[in-house]
Every structure is written in structure tokens, then in C-alpha cells.
Write a structure and sequence with these properties.
heterodimer; B: alpha+beta; seven-stranded mixed β-sheet
């Protein structure tokens, strides 16, 4: 069971990473226009 | 959108110089402007707008938002003017309207965002605590060491406590606010259950007991936050759509400076004594007195009267009335206490106070639910104590009762339905402005219509065409084509693409009519004085007279036509068991004609705003729940006084603000749709409550008996929430009505 000492922090760290990612994407306004985001992926890249 | 074409052909709003709406960005050397581009519907439009604006010199950023149909542009003001951006968007075929920053401030995005943050935190914690809990649950049936279990519980506490402290704040705030006012809402039992479950779990962790409920409290918050977020989201969406409508209608006034030059300014900046130019086809930007010019004014939006009034120098006119035939100069007067608008505002305030406070279904449920849950928990303690068990067992079981009854399903029962219903109505062009509008609409048993602009299109059409000579019609239409007067337009529209004789020497005499020549014959089209006709008996609509050479004048009558589906809608309302009434400010013959055509036996004509409000009062006293549908300024107090109200998107601003629903389009059928969806929503909400109650009937006795372990609580809570959500989504599958446009 000593493996738990490594696994539990690892699981926690990974999900904290996910949470940080979510909060960052929220802060940078990525949820402001859900419809636009859904349509934009259909556009060809120009550059 | 045929109606949009109708309205834009009738009224030509003056836009204020976009420079008024430009905002200084926080970093110097940059300004920003919000534009509404209502026609932007797809990725292609979005890209074209962004790319074309981006090509202009000095643009720092362009971001189009497809959900709100708005574009935010940031640029360097030394290189570019705001009007150039709007011209550029116009050049690719979109109308961009500058959006007043004052309007933007009305929608609070921050509440939705903070709920989403709390939701993210709760979701993170719920997933991790569940991971540990599942290990414990499976360990309990095998052979987990108590020490390992303790480690898992301490880890759970470490994750759950900060997360709960953060994610439960919206519920604590709302519960505290309710308790301070001596009221009860759904958040009170939620806050209590979360607090007690967390508190007990800490104690259990310290003494290393078998069961802790960290997972229950955090998943509870997770589910409830979903419901709360959906609620706020739906409200914000309807609100921003309503703002776009107002923004699109925001008018400007053309100010005439002392030196005779013209400048367009926002209406708010007008002051008494200023001179304003009002072109034919524009609305009066303010109350005032005509300083120069001779014209007709259409007051239908203000008084419901369908005939236009002639105005000349010195005539008083009201803001919002439509200048029909010729350019006018208006001297703005101060809003005096006796003006129509002040009276309307007074009546609206009175109506607001008289309106009984509506208690939302969720709050009504909470009033029954919260005390009964607390009584159940209390009796659990008492029963276990009587049974001779220890205080710890008694309290543990009472808390289990609070946890399993915690209203996950109830918290989702209303918001999910609300979101689905408002989303569907929005797609059909109906804005739900009031949060409780759908609930109130579902209770309606009587519909009261205004006539002009509501049941009718508020636009004249040629009547008794059979009695007219085709040759007269052709000559009249040839003259009418050159004019912008609404009756002339209606005549020209009536003949369509028919080949017309070519007239020469056309000219228009403001406020009088048109004159032209067909060969040697002088032809006149205009009011009865213009053609020298004798007085004739009043009829229910407007009229034009046509005189050809020396022949006696011919009268062309116009009536305000009903909306294309008005008759069917009235029938459909009656078929649904609703009483229907007509309450109009127009004159009796016009109202009677409309009532007869619609098959309505109850109608009231020449009703002033106070009479309309009085009628609402009488109906309410008789026990009717009235849906008032109206568009005019004169309807605004009645819209506020009614149980629930609706106005078309072409309505006066004040009426649109007063109404609970706004529908777009030339058809009335969205009204039926809204009514059906409201009723269906109500049914589904009650089904959801029934599901939640059924679940509690099973879970509560188990909890009181002490059989509910954290595992059972988790399964029961999730399954009831999912059932309720799935049931709500059924609303999306209600059959769409045939004959949709």
C-alpha cells in the first residue's frame, strides 16, 4: 500500500492542473461566446 | 424577416454619430466601441466582419461575438474615426449600430463567471473526493485497514474543506439574506445540510468513524451550482438580446445649430429650446412645438389612433410620433408635468404598486419543503432518543435525513426547464424578459389585445379595391410612387409591378398631396382639400383622393390590416379555453370593424391609458389572470398592471421595457407558441417535483431508520438529479407547430 504515498499526490496534482487550466480559460474569456467558438472551428486558417 | 422590411420601410431611424459611444480604453492611445451587428448568423459573416474591419488602418483588435451578435473594436483614434468602421461594415452588407456603453452595464456578467468558477472548484473537489470515497466503499466490503481509511478521510477533508468554503458561498449569501428578512428559501436547508454534513464529517474523521459525508456535501454543491449557473445564464442571454433590440432602436436627433448646420446627437442630450430637424419618415425625438413646416403626424404608437393628424407651425407634438409627409423643424420643449409621457410614467408607477407580488414556484415549493425537512430531522433525533440510543446515533441519523433530502433534484427542477424553454422561444423570436414570466404566462386564462400595431400591422392597405376603376388606380399609383407618404406607398405597393402610365411635371405639396400631368390632363392625389372634394361621411380608416382633370374626385380608402394570422391566433386562443378581449385607444368604427373580423364580442374603443389600467383592475378583481398584448405608449401602464404582458418588437420603448415578453415578426403566432411552451414547462416542472418527492418518499424513511450510508446517499442523489434533468430535456421534443415561417 506504500504506493499510495506517490499516487495520491500525483492524482491531486494532475486534477489541480486541470482546475488551473479551467480557471485560466474562464478568465481569458473563452466561455463568453460558445456559439462563435463552435462556428469558428469550421473556418479555414488564413495565415 | 418580412416584418423587418416593413418596419424599416416605414421608419428611417437617424443614428447618432458613433463618436458618442466610443469608450477610452484604460491604456492611452486606444479607444473601443461596441457594435450590434444583428444580421451576423454564421462563421462566414463573422469572419467577413472581422477581416474587413481588421484591414482598416489603426485597428488593434476586432472580436465578433456570435452569441450576443456584438463586435468589439479597439483602435487608435488618431488614425481612424468610428464612422469609418461602421461604413466599412456597411460596405460588406451588414448594418452595424453603435451600442451605448450605459446599456452594457445593465447585464452583470460577473455573477455568471463567479458561479462558473465555483462550479469548476466544486467539480474538481467532487471528482477527487469521489476517487477516495470509492476506494473506501470498496475497502469496507473487503479488508481495508482502519489506518488506511483514516488516511483517505484526512485526504478527503483536505480537498473538500477549502472547496466547500469556496463553492458554498452563493448559497450561504442567499440563505443569510432570506433569513435576515425573516423568510425561507431553498438555500436555507441547503446551507444547513452542507454545514451539518461537513461539521459531522470532520468529527467522524477525528474519531476515525466508519462513515464520513465529505463526498455528499461537495457533489451536492456541484449539482446545485449547475442549476444556479443555468438560471443566471438564461437570464443574461434574454437580457442581452433585449438590449440589442433597444440598442438597434436607439434614435438620434438631427440638431439644427444657430448657424443652420446640422449635427446628429443622442436623444438624451436634447434640451428645451433646441431646434431639431425631423425628416419625413422619422419619429419625433422629443416633445416639442413645430417651428416650421407643414405635415401629417402618425400618433398610433402613442395613442392607438390609426388616423394621422395634420400639423402646422405651433402644433404640439409628442416624442415618438411619426412624421409622415414633409420635413419639419421642431422646437424642443421641456417635459412638463401634463405631458402624455409624464402621465404614462405616473400610471405605470401606480400599476407597479398595485401588482400583487408573484411568488415563484420554486419559492413556493421551498416554503413547504424547508420546514418539513427540518421537522423530519428533528423528529428523527427525538425518535432515536426515545428508542434509547445515544445522542451521537440520533444526531448522525438526523444529519443523514438532511443530506438525502437536500434538494439537488429540486434545485435543478426549475432552472433546467427554464433554460430549455427560453432557449427554444429565443430561436422562435420571443424574448423572455422577466425571470418568472413563463410561470405567470402558464396561468393565464384571458388575453386582452390592443388593436393598432398589435393585432394590426400598424400600416395602411388599400380597401374596397373592387369599386375602383383600374385606370384611376394606375394613374394614382404612378403619382404615389414618387411620394414617401405611407398612404401613397400603400397605393404603390398595391399595384405592384403593373405597368403604369408615365407622368410629367411631378411635384409634391407638403401636407397636401401630389400633382402631375398625363398628357394635357392635370392629376392630383392628396387630401380632400387638395382635390376640392366635399365633406363625406366618416369611415373607419384613412383616405386619399384622386382627381383627374375635370372629373369628380375619387376616394381611395385605406384600412389598417390585421396581422396575417390574427384571425387564426384568436381562434387558437379560444380553442385553448381562453377569453379574448379587445381594448383599444382607437375610434369606435375602426375597433368594431376589427372585432367583427376577429369574431370578438367584447371590445372597448377610445380607451385612454387610465381606462385601460382600470379595465385591468376590474378583470383582476373578477379573478381573471390576464395576458395583455400591446405596443403603444398608451398600453404601457396596462402592460405593467396585467398578470403578464407581451409586446411586439415594433412597440414603443417604454412598452417594451414594461412587457415581460417581446416577440419579433409580422405574425402573432409566437404568442401561441410562448403560451404552449409556458404551459408545457409548468407541467414538466410539476413532474420534476413529483419525481423529487417520490425519491424522498423512499430515501427519507431509510435515512430515519439509519440505513443510509454515504454510498447510498451518493447514488440516490445523482440518480434523482439525472432523472429530473432528462425529464426537463423532453421539453425540446414538444412538436413544433405547423405553419412556422
Amino acid at each position: 500500500m506504500s504506493i499510495l504515498i506517490y499516487l495520491m499526490p500525483a492524482a491531486l496534482f494532475l486534477s489541480l492542473l486541470g482546475l488551473a487550466g479551467f480557471l485560466w480559460s474562464l478568465k481569458s474569456g473563452q466561455y463568453d461566446d460558445m456559439e462563435g467558438a463552435a462556428e469558428r472551428i469550421l473556418l479555414e486558417d488564413e495565415d | 424577416m418580412s416584418d423587418a422590411a416593413i418596419q424599416s420601410s416605414a421608419v428611417h431611424p437617424v443614428r447618432a454619430d458613433p463618436g458618442f459611444f466610443v469608450r477610452e480604453a484604460s491604456n492611452g492611445g486606444e479607444v473601443s466601441l461596441d457594435l450590434v451587428v444583428q444580421a451576423m448568423h454564421c462563421a462566414g459573416c463573422l469572419r467577413r466582419v472581422e477581416r474587413n474591419v481588421g484591414e482598416l488602418p489603426g485597428i488593434h483588435s476586432v472580436r465578433a461575438n456570435l452569441s450576443t451578435k456584438r463586435v468589439v473594436v479597439r483602435w487608435d483614434p488618431t488614425l481612424l474615426r468610428a464612422s469609418q468602421i461602421i461604413d466599412k461594415i456597411a460596405s460588406i452588407g451588414f448594418e452595424a449600430v453603435p451600442f451605448d456603453p450605459k446599456l452594457i452595464a445593465m447585464v452583470d456578467e460577473s455573477e455568471g463567471r463567479s458561479l462558473l468558477r465555483a462550479l469548476g472548484v466544486a467539480g474538481f473537489a467532487a471528482a477527487n473526493v469521489m476517487l477516495l470515497s470509492v476506494a473506501v466503499w470498496s475497502g469496507l466490503v473487503t479488508d481495508m485497514e482502519p489506518e488506511t481509511r483514516a488516511l483517505f478521510y484526512w485526504m478527503s477533508a483536505l480537498i473538500a474543506l477549502p472547496a466547500i468554503a469556496y463553492a458554498a458561498r452563493p448559497f450561504y449569501r442567499s440563505a443569510y439574506a432570506a433569513l435576515r428578512k425573516g423568510q425561507m428559501n431553498m438555500d436555507v436547508p441547503i446551507a444547513l445540510a452542507v454545514t451539518l454534513a461537513t461539521g459531522m464529517s470532520i468529527v467522524q474523521t477525528i474519531v476515525n468513524a466508519r462513515h464520513v459525508y465529505f463526498d455528499a456535501s461537495i457533489t451536492l454543491l456541484f449539482f446545485l451550482l449547475i442549476g444556479r449557473y443555468l438560471d443566471v445564464q438564461a437570464r443574461n442571454r434574454a437580457c442581452s438580446a433585449a438590449q440589442n433590440l433597444l440598442g438597434l432602436r436607439a434614435m438620434a436627433a438631427t440638431l439644427v445649430e444657430a448657424d443652420g448646420s446640422h449635427r446628429s446627437v443622442p436623444i438624451e442630450s436634447l434640451e428645451a429650446g433646441m431646434m431639431v430637424a425631423v425628416a419625413a419618415g422619422q419619429r419625433m425625438p422629443a416633445d416639442g412645438v413645430i417651428a416650421s413646416g407643414l405635415s401629417d403626424v402618425d400618433t398610433s404608437l402613442i395613442t392607438g389612433e390609426s388616423l394621422s393628424d395634420a400639423v402646422k407651425v405651433g402644433t404640439k407634438v409628442f416624442a415618438g410620433t411619426l412624421n409622415i409627409s414633409a420635413p419639419l423643424t421642431l422646437k424642443v420643449t421641456a417635459r412638463d408635468e401634463n405631458s402624455l409621457l409624464s402621465e404614462i410614467v405616473r400610471l405605470m408607477e401606480a400599476a407597479e404598486q398595485g401588482r400583487s407580488a408573484y411568488v415563484r414556484i420554486a419559492d413556493r415549493a421551498a416554503r413547504i419543503y424547508a420546514p418539513s425537512v427540518h421537522i423530519l430531522a428533528l423528529s428523527t433525533v427525538v425518535l432515536w432518543l426515545i428508542a434509547g440510543e445515544g445522542v451521537v446515533t440520533a444526531i448522525t441519523n438526523a444529519i443523514a435525513v438532511l443530506i438525502v433530502t437536500c434538494p439537488c433534484a429540486l434545485g435543478l427542477a426549475v432552472p433546467v426547464v427554464q433554460v430549455v424553454a427560453t432557449g427554444r422561444l429565443l430561436r422562435r423570436g420571443v424574448l423572455v424578459k422577466a425571470a418568472d414570466g413563463l410561470e405567470r404566462l402558464a396561468e393565464v386564462d384571458m388575453v386582452v389585445f390592443d388593436k393598432t400595431g398589435t393585432l394590426t400591422l400598424g400600416r395602411p392597405q388599400l380597401a374596397d379595391t373592387a369599386s375602383l376603376e383600374p385606370a384611376d388606380l394606375a394613374v394614382g399609383a404612378a403619382l404615389a410612387r414618387a411620394s414617401r407618404h405611407p398612404l401613397a406607398r400603400a397605393l404603390a405597393e398595391h399595384v405592384g409591378t403593373m405597368p403604369l402610365p408615365v407622368l410629367t411635371d411631378l411635384h409634391e405639396e407638403p401636407g397636401q398631396g401630389m400633382e402631375g400631368r398625363l398628357g394635357a390632363e392635370v392629376i392630383r392625389l392628396g387630401n380632400r382639400f387638395w382635390v376640392g372634394a366635399v365633406e363625406e361621411a366618416a369611415h373607419s380608416g384613412s383616405e386619399l383622393w384622386l382627381k383627374r382633370g375635370g372629373a369628380s374626385p375619387v376616394c381611395l380608402r385605406f384600412t389598417d390590416v390585421l396581422r396575417p394570422d390574427a384571425v387564426e391566433v384568436v381562434k387558437a386562443l379560444k380553442a385553448r379555453g381562453l377569453a379574448v378581449e379587445l381594448l383599444s385607444g382607437d375610434r369606435e368604427p375602426a375597433v368594431r370593424a376589427a372585432a367583427e373580423e376577429l369574431g370578438l364580442s367584447v371590445w372597448h374603443a377610445a380607451a385612454r391609458p387610465d381606462a385601460k389600467i382600470e379595465r385591468m383592475g376590474i378583470l383582476a378583481e373578477e379573478g381573471w389572470k390576464v395576458l395583455m398584448v400591446g405596443d403603444g405608449l398608451n398600453d404601457a401602464p396596462a402592460l405593467r398592471a396585467a398578470h403578464v404582458s407581451m409586446s411586439p418588437a415594433s412597440a414603443a420603448d417604454v412598452s417594451q421595457i414594461a412587457a415581460d415578453f417581446v416577440f419579433q415578426g409580422a405574425k402573432l403566432s409566437p404568442l401561441i407558441e410562448a403560451l404552449d411552451i409556458a404551459r408545457k414547462s409548468r407541467r414538466i416542472v410539476f413532474e420534476n417535483f413529483a419525481l423529487a418527492i417520490a425519491y424522498n418518499l423512499v430515501a427519507v424513511p431509510l435515512a430515519m431508520a439509519g440505513f443510509v450510508t454515504p454510498l447510498i446517499a451518493a447514488v440516490a442523489m445523482s440518480s434523482s438529479s439525472i432523472t429530473v434533468t432528462l425529464n426537463s430535456l423532453r421539453l425540446n421534443r414538444v412538436k413544433e407547430k405547423a405553419g412556422r415561417s
